[in-house]
User: What shape does this take?
Amino acid sequence: MGKTTLLVKPSNEKISVNKGSNLLDVLNQSNIYVEGACGGRGTCGKCKVKVLRGEVAPSESDLKKITKEEIELGYRLACRVEINDDLTIEVPGQAKEDSRKSDISSTVGLEAVTSFKKEYVELPQPVLKDQIGDFERIKRHVPEGENFTISLNALRKLPGVLRSSKFKITYTSYKNRIIDVEEGDTTGKLYGIAFDIGTTTIVGTLLDMVTGKALAVSSTGNPQRSYGADVISRITFSSEKDGLKILREKVLQGMNEICKELCKKAGISSQNIYHITTVGNTTMHHLFLGVDPTYLARSPYIPTFQEAQTLTAAEAGLEANPDACVYMVPNIAGYVGADTVGVVLDSHLEKSSQIKLAIDIGTNGEVLLGSKDKLLACSTAAGPAFEGAQIKYGMRAAEGAIERVKITTDCEIATIGNKPAVGICGSGLLDAVAQLVKAGIIDSRGRILPPDEIEGISPQLAARIIAGENGYDFILATEEESGINSPVVLTQKDVREVQLAKGAIYAGIKVMEKNLGITDDDLAEIILAGAFGSYIDKESAVTIGLIPAIDLEKIKSIGNAAGRGSQMALLSDTEKERANVISRQVEYIELSTNQDFQQEFMFAMNFPSPQ
Ligand code: FES
Assistant: This one.
């Protein structure tokens, strides 16, 4: 098998590849992220790259998923390209990931109260009259020492560390087990990382476990994304040959990148990371452990484990002290995971005397409703529409994504980083649909109307409504305003996807309200959790009927609550105990077979009449 060269722009990365390799696989293996919502099946149209040099005939999928103009410009679906000769490609949006999540202000600031301890001791040096063993010497010296055990790694380090430090050492213990020994006084070097393993993004926060302070935050796209945008496609991929192994390796790759970056940012050694906590949906937790998630996707949707799991960093495959304790926050059910427990930890819903609604809109839409008397949870399977997966020009919140839309006599857009528009992210999508509903361009049933059916429409807006594949489409950014050689368009199908997603969330809320015997008027507060919740316009969310129409003052965005829940578990044994109680206390409502849900869903698909 001969070799050939792939040159990737704009990063100018040169990759030597075997002839016959699949382009998407090569990019994945080289850690160059290209969206692959369908897992390389050629059906999502998301893995577009531009061929700058080299001959690549358009495939059948290209002809279906890419416009004629784009094909002429050299765009191809990476998953359909076989590399047989030298090739130069451009990966559009090989721009920076959304840096908005690496924000240290989203940290908890708790006092650290854990079972991790670092003690500096000066031991008497052995002599012939005192031949007690090295480990027993520590035990004898420390008041609570008689209960101590020691890990094999620490035991192996012990004789060398004791003698090179003249028996002045620091030992690190966790629940009476010594997990590390170091020369001299290192008592201030006790660190932990709290992870939020999202289906789309992984966020890690480095915390000082002595002071409780956050030292650094880092995030990366979940490298599993190239194998599918949502949990179902990941579960499907996991059953393919080596699929589970690949997905585990990918999530670890992302987490270890974060570990490295956090240590570099804070100037610490990874060997001083002794505690790691994780939240994530139940599928992410299964894949992190390499546990087969198949049965999560088959009725009756049974997870392999729900309770908190504890293992070492070495067992988990994480680059930290090998004996660091990895604590996985418990899951609630197959589709309501530890990330939802994290939201409750952070928002204290289980202690609230008022009825509150919390929605975590990520790749799934988990909804919590209730108070200290009864707290319900459901997963609305909203799908990753708000992350752009099934949206024609959908993309994550990265440079060039349309994030705000305003309809006046024309369409005004704002993009992330003020760059030419290359696509639309969740907050922009929500705004676009809400604004078009308000302007009467989209009717209550979700149809983009032709200009002649819209009373008093301006000529500028009329020119933006064009015939599309499934009715009419709306041009958000013209070819001149965009950075992709074609207009950025909201299609009729995109509007349907938004209807499905928002309809599922709203119907879930209605089913839970019915279960509690309450109405929207009883809601003291609506909490929007998750990165998406931080950026959406509350008014737009109410306009399209994503959330109940209550006073906007009562709607609060709290950012990455799941991630803060992970930090709380890291810094406090009491919070870990709370997490266990919450996972048992929250009542899970299964919507897939719920009759009320089907009815509410049909109704919730429509848009409320503009006020
Ligand atoms: S079309 Fe290539 S990954 Fe979906």
